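User: Hi! I have a protein structure encoded as tokens and I'd like to know what sequence might fold into it. I'm fairly new to this, so please keep things simple.
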């Protein structure tokens, strides 16, 4: 039996955990983001089910919603499939970033719907938009791995 000191045991456990994370965390990130995009996209196909539908309708008034919402839903599902399949990742991330430009547009197009008090007081819709910063950052992390071997 090998007797190890507490610092040596800690170091061994830490190496095992960080090695596991290095091998699997990007895949887990891709899968979790893919599920979110597929789920939120699918909700948009059923009128009244997506919590974002009202905000979309109010923010894009000049576009026919019977075309725009299904198109947006399909776009999000394609992003989700790209993330989960780990194929065409550059295109998937580009689609995601373009979609996010549209997602943040209500901050400027309809500030009355997203701000209670400028610059920090957000409505629930505003919080829904701001949390997408995490998705953008996660997409950039995934994008940083596209030149490596596939996970």
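Assistant: Happy to help. Inverse folding works backwards from shape to sequence: for each of the 151 positions I chose a residue that suits the local structure. Here it is:
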């Amino acid at each position: 039996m090998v007797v190890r000191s507490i610092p040596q045991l800690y170091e061994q456990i830490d190496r095992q955990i960080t090695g596991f994370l290095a091998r699997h965390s990007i895949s887990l990130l891709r899968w979790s983001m893919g599920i979110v995009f597929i789920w939120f996209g699918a909700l948009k196909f059923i009128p009244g089910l997506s919590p974002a539908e009202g905000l979309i309708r109010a923010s894009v008034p000049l576009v026919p919603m019977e075309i725009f919402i299904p198109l947006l839903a399909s776009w999000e599902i394609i992003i989700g499939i790209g993330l989960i399949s780990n194929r065409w990742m550059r295109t998937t991330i580009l689609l995601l970033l373009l979609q996010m430009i549209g997602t943040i547009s209500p901050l400027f197009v309809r500030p009355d719907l997203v701000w209670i008090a400028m610059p920090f007081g957000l409505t629930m819709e505003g919080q829904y938009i701001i949390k997408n910063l995490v998705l953008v950052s996660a997409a950039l992390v995934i994008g940083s791995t596209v030149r490596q071997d596939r996970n």
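A useful reference point when you look it over: The CA atoms of residues 56 and 69 lie 8 Å apart. Feel free to ask if any position seems puzzling.
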